[in-house]
Amino acid sequence: MANNKLIVGWFSFTCSEDSTILFTELLNDNFDKWRNLVEFRYLKALKTKNYIKNLDVSFIEGAISSESQANEAKKIRENSKVVVAIGSCACTGMPSASRNSLGSDEINEKMKWYMSHFNYNQKVQKLPDVIKVDDMVNSCPMDKDTFIEILEKYLKIFNVV
Ligand code: SF4
């Protein structure tokens, strides 16, 4: 028997949020179809009331660069049946993790100020370093055809279509 809707969350950590922009562009063409198939339970780009609870699939964009981000990612994992890493920063760490390769002499005062005031970790991590990831949509920004394939795959797995 088909479920009503796939319950989805969309999250962004350290990143330029270009995949979020791409996703909202995809909504221009797909919203009428997806609104009947998908409940967007967490999607700050579009809604003010958002919940991290009983999510079927969470899409996570961006690398992890602080303890609070790691804790938030773990909370999403605990409340999601499936987690999909979105974009190169989440899948591989790069380009957000570029500062990992800088020598101590290359970290200037401004960078030190940011790192201490925002409690950033010494090293930026890719999402699979912090939580279990079930699927990936790589590329910078995400490959939109792969994203649609993965969304359609989980619509079937969760018996929505
Ligand atoms: S993968 Fe590229 S587009 Fe996506 S957040 Fe990182 S830098 Fe931005």
List the helices and strands and how they pair.
Elements (H helix, E strand, L loop, with lengths): L5 E7 L5 H17 L3 E6 L11 E7 L2 E3 H12 L1 E7 H6 L16 H9 L2 E6 L9 E3 L6 H14 L4
Parallel strand pairs: 1-2, 1-3, 3-5, 5-7
Antiparallel strand pairs: 4-6
The structure holds iron/sulfur cluster (SF4).
The site of iron/sulfur cluster has 13 residues, from helix 1 and helix 3.
Textual characterization of the structure:
The chain is α/β, with parallel strands linked by helices and 161 residues long. The chain has a single domain, classed as Rossmann fold, CATH 3.40.50. Helix content is 36%, strand content 24%. The strands form two sheets. A five-stranded parallel β-sheet has the order 2-1-3-5-7, sandwiched between helices. Strands 4-6 form a two-stranded antiparallel sheet. The longest helix has 17 residues. The protein is elongated, with a radius of gyration of 17 Å. The site of iron/sulfur cluster (SF4) has 13 residues, from α1 and α3.
**List of distinct ligands in this structure:** iron/sulfur cluster
CATH domain topology: Rossmann fold
> What's the alpha carbon Rg, rounded to whole Å?
17 Å
Major sheet details? 5 strands, parallel
- Total domain count: 1
Question: What structural class is derived from the secondary structure elements?
Answer: alpha/beta
The portion of residues forming beta strands comes to 15-25%
Q: Record the strand order, biggest sheet.
A: 2-1-3-5-7
- Any idea what the shape is? elongated
Individual helix count: 5
CATH class: Alpha Beta
Oligomeric state, counting identical vs distinct chains: single chain
Q: How many distinct beta strands?
A: 7
CATH homologous superfamily grouping: NADH:ubiquinone oxidoreductase-like, 20kDa subunit
